[in-house]
Design goal:
By secondary structure, the protein is of the alpha/beta class. The protein is built from eleven helices and ten strands. 37% of the residues lie in helices and 20% in strands. The longest helix has 21 residues. The protein binds adenosine-5'-triphosphate (ATP). Keywords: ATP-binding, Nucleotide-binding, Transport. It comes from Patulibacter medicamentivorans.
Length: 303
């Protein structure tokens, strides 16, 4: 029997509970001022193929910013550039005034930028606590880690609490349920003390209940930080996004909008619905599932 996920500890905390219809609009507090992440004129080519062209993008402290777009739009490539995995052909990426382009991945982590991948990358043979200790040590450095008093660093204790994994601290990560592994990976990010968290499809493969808990966790993470979420799940976006940017074929289709603005945008609707139509047609022809349109029906309903 697969283990039952424990809910995040701070469930009663109004900052992380799901949005209620009577709640005030989720406009992030800071619209003015310099964004924490500022991307200008970004472009990248693979061979002759333009994966990203002239991308401008801003994200501010305290906001949950969703990056959406059909398959192949360039979302992961954008995250890869921010984190130093891919070098852009043109443009700049400024994080808290620091230019990131040209720095190696580990330097960018030290600047305060962390990411998760589509598949959780935890050390399955280690316990939950050991995974978190290891993640915390990456930022602290070995010398400071050895000088730590016995027990876990504060950042690890916080990560255990907010991911709801405190009761699983001595369990091996390989024995966790799918959702719990994703939460552990997010907890490992948190233990590194980032100011910008990039989450690539954090709810893929999760149950509805796990999605809700992940959304609550993301809202918690955004307190005093910035969270950029790459996601296909439109319902999840509607519930938990502050701002939304839409990419299409490597270009910005709609920048820094509210959920309502994105839903009302006919160009965005056309991209998603057109894509869904194409996928359905090709699925009909080939008999294969329309893998590229996980949220399409959602959007048709929204349209
Ligand atoms: N290293 C690479 N070499 C060649 N082409 C690449 C490389 N990385 C990405 N691409 C191409 O760039 C385009 C954008 O890919 P990317 O993975 O960023 O899209 P995405 O929006 O994240 O898609 P998905 O939602 O399917 O993950 C795709 O056409 C992809 O094939």
């Amino acid at each position: 029997m697969s283990p039952q996920p424990t809910p995040p500890r701070a469930e009663g905390d109004p900052a992380i509970r799901p949005r209620h219809p009577s709640d005030p609009p989720q406009t992030p507090p800071e619209k003015a001022g310099e964004p924490l992440l500022r991307i200008r004129g970004l472009g990248v080519q693979f061979g002759g193929f333009h994966a990203l062209t002239d991308v401008d993008f801003d994200a501010r402290e305290g906001e949950v910013h969703f990056l959406i777009g059909p398959n192949g739009a360039g979302k992961t490539t954008l995250v890869d550039i921010i984190t130093g995995l891919t070098k852009p052909t043109t443009g700049s990426v400024s994080f808290d005034g620091q230019q990131l382009v040209g720095h190696k991945e580990h330097r960018i982590v030290h600047f305060g930028v962390g990411r998760t991948f589509q598949a959780a990358t935890v050390f399955e043979a280690l316990t939950v606590g050991e995974n978190l200790d290891l993640a915390a040590s990456y930022r602290l450095g070995l010398r400071r880690l050895l000088r730590q008093p016995r027990g876990h660093a504060d950042a690890v204790v916080e990560a255990l609490e907010v991911t709801g994994l405190a009761d699983e601290v001595d369990k091996s990560a390989g024995a966790l349920a799918h959702g719990q592994k994703q939460w552990l990976e997010i907890g490992m990010l948190l233990a590194q003390g980032p100011r910008l968290l990039l989450l690539d499809e954090p709810v893929a493969g999760m149950s509805p209940d796990e999605r809700t808990r992940t959304g609550e966790l993301i809202r918690y993470l955004a307190r005093g930080r910035t969270v950029l979420v790459v996601e296909h799940d439109m319902d999840f976006m509607r519930r938990f996004a502050d701002r939304v940017t839409v990419l299409h074929e490597g270009r910005i289709l709609r920048a820094d909008a509210t959920v309502a603005e994105v839903q009302a945008d006919p160009t965005v609707q056309e991209v998603y619905i057109g894509r869904a139509r194409d996928d359905r047609n090709s699925a009909g022809r080939s008999g294969a599932a329309a893998a590229g349109a996980p949220a399409a029906s959602d959007d048709e309903e929204a349209a």
